[in-house]
Amino acid sequence: MAPLGRAALLLAFGLVFYALVAGSYAAWKRRRRLALSAQNALIAAFPVTLVAAIILLVALGRRDMSFVYVWQHTSHKLPLGYALSAFWGGQEGSLLLWLLVLTGYAALAVWLNRRSRDLVAWTVPVFGLVAVFFAFMLCFVSSPFGLQPTRADGNGMVPSLQNPYMLAHPPLLYLGYVGLTVPFAFAMGALLSGRTDERWIVATRRWTLAAWTFLGVGQLIGAHWAYVEIGWGGYYAWDPVENAALMPWLAATAFLHSVMIQEKRGMLKVWNMVLVALAFNLSLFGTFLTRSGVINSIHSFSKSSIGGWFLAFLGLMIFFSIALIRWRLPLLRTKTKLESLVSREATFLYNNLLLVALALTILWGVLYPILSDAVRGETRSVSKPYYDFFLHTFGLPLLLLMGLGPLVAWRRASLRSLGKTFVIPFTVAVATGVALLALGFGSSWPGLLTYTFSAFVAASIVLEFVRGRAAAGGIFRLIARNRRRYGGYIVHAAIVLLAIGIAGSSAYQTQREQVLKPGQSIEAAGYILTYTGLNGVKGSNYTGFRALLAVSGHGERFRLNPGMNNYAIEGPSNEASIYHDPRSLGDVFTTAQLAGKHTNMIDVKVFVKPLVNLIWVAGFVFVAGALIAMWPDAVEQRRLAARYAAGAAPAGI
Amino acid sequence: MGASPARLVIALSVAGALAIFVVYTALAGNGVANLTPSTVAGHTGHVSLVGKVAGKPQGNAYHGGGLRFQLKDIDHGTPARVPVVYHGAVPDQFKTGADLVVEGALLNGVFVAKRGSMITKCPDHYAAAKPKT
């Protein structure tokens, strides 16, 4: 099977290389048949890569220990689902997944837009260029089809990866990372062809939205995984690996907003090109970061030889993007100017600047160890306080703008109309702020501002729905008529829930730690946790203990049983015990470790995290809003077809 | 107002962001040094120490003299070893050979870790499992 896998990868490499070279020549010389041939080669690369992927999946499913990759990442006792998830459990499989998703996306995007020949002509070689890199890596640098004499059993999978989240979190992130290649390829294709109107944006809007949604949901699932599995009471650590996914998501968020300005007013053409290139290059940078091991992380990157390849490719793509944008600057200049600093487009511009500033300060934090090492000869790093400071500095105004932007008129808004528009949200926000102060929430000013601004945004969203419903004659009719706009509002509502959940669970969190003997208690935020004894537990491949904690407080009584499992091969693992409090929408989160051998004393950690469950609820609302916003709209398609009557309207997904 | 308010907004925003950045850096310092057992000697301030647990850990993280162990460099074969004393919760993956990060300060040749600051490196999907030999 392995030779067939290698052959499939070589064929895929040949196809995408042909798409790059023949596609470039055809687009340059305007050879229609050759362009079609290059396009077909790119589309054919997907099923060929799929063959390679299926071979690897079969080998993983069969636990074929003659494959080095299978031996490294699975064992015979590993359940089938986790064995298959080892596809993205290691470097070679991850690269194959990248190529598979990339060729799949490219095939679909090119096929859907096949009638817009001039739009696709240069897009095919750009897709080809990115795919050539990944196919080259898989064929010649890091193959998943390496063989060895068959071993009795494999190395297995680390316990914390044997989790249902492992089946969803990595592939969703990849769907997001790789998805950002689609708008990038179309944007660069538009620059190369000189067709810099809005068609590339229309063709890729839903692709960008889909990639952005995958990236957002992937991160939230990863955060929930860390929360329930690792046992540290947190869900985001500002670690370079986490930041690697957050940065392109922020850049893509900015892009999704600024394209609306280009569509409506024909402005920000250069800026949109910069943003789409930034989002794509940040996703490549994230891969370089995780692959190279150049930055110290709590995630155990293995130092790998492919980091240098990635750095070279990243450098090439940055140069390629900048050079193209610079070359086509005259075509990207627009006559339309920003008419007023108080207008819808101005608030979108502020939003963009804040999002990019946040992404770049995170990038600076990630790069700081490398830069300090280069400049001062000493590796230094920034940590949570740095990121928290900039999250507050740029994030809070962003939250406020979410409420302001959608209600401000296009072109120019008068102060009088603003007063009229915002009187209700402003009153709600002030009343919320005062009430929270009276209730004692003034202990954290970022928390207080987050809640006040969230009330403002929530009120403005509700107001928009109420006004719109009256005009449309029903809430569903309203959403159906303008899915993009109201889907966007629902996503904004998700961000409000997220902000409230993050502020509640961090700014107002209570944390206690104490060593307890049986009969002793620990108090945290009004809950009394009494340690009553230990129970032993036994599973098929582990033994462990559970501490029995009787909890009372806030009119409730419940039990928690944190403890540890000691896996026979893989070692110990924390088993957190969490009580979801429906009253506060928060959690009482506990972990317990034995405070020494031959003793029943335990070290108990308690986190009381108000409103933390809103973060996970926000995920569902986010997906609902994103799905509404990207749902195909026949009216919109007809409008676009009319606008681009000279050629066929580009097709979104 | 000039011909292009957008440019003014961008220029002012960039200047504002840089100003915030400079003020933050001036007030909050410039990060914590990340050191390894071979580079920590001579540093007396609060630092972050990254290394691999060498030898058998002794003692108890919750009582008395605390958990005592040695760290060596993860990547290089240097002979440097730093004795560490630690109190507080011990992460799952702590054992001989584990890669970890602790914060603290060097005191008379012993790295006194800040309570509860130990983080073991989290295995994730980016890392290839180390082959058993």
Structure in words:
The complex is a heterodimer of chains A (653) and B (133). Chain A is of the alpha+beta class and 653 residues long. Chain A has helices spanning 2-29, 32-61, 68-73, 80-85, 91-112, 117-121, 123-141, 165-179, 181-193, 199-229, 240-265, 269-292, 306-327, 329-332, 344-376, 384-404, 415-438, 445-472, 475-481, 483-506, 613-630, 634-643; strands at 380-381, 510-516, 521-524, 527-538, 542-553, 556-560, 563-567, 571-575, 577-581, 586-594, 602-609. In chain A, the strands form two sheets. In chain A, strands 3, 4, 5, 6, 7 and 8 form a six-stranded antiparallel beta sheet that branches. In chain A, helix 1 runs antiparallel to helix 2, helix 8 packs antiparallel against helix 10 (199-229) and helix 9 (181-193) runs antiparallel to helix 10 (199-229). The radius of gyration of chain A is 27 Å and the shape is globular. Chain A starts with a helix and ends in a 10-residue tail after the last helix. With 133 residues, chain B is α+β, with helices and mostly antiparallel strands. Helix content of chain B is 18%, strand content 33%. In chain B, strand 5 and strand 6 form a beta hairpin. The longest helix of chain B has 24 residues, at 5-28. Residues 124-133 of chain B have low confidence and may be disordered. Chains A and B meet through helix 3, helix 8, helix 15, strand 1 and helix 16 of A and helix 1, strand 1 and strand 7 of B.
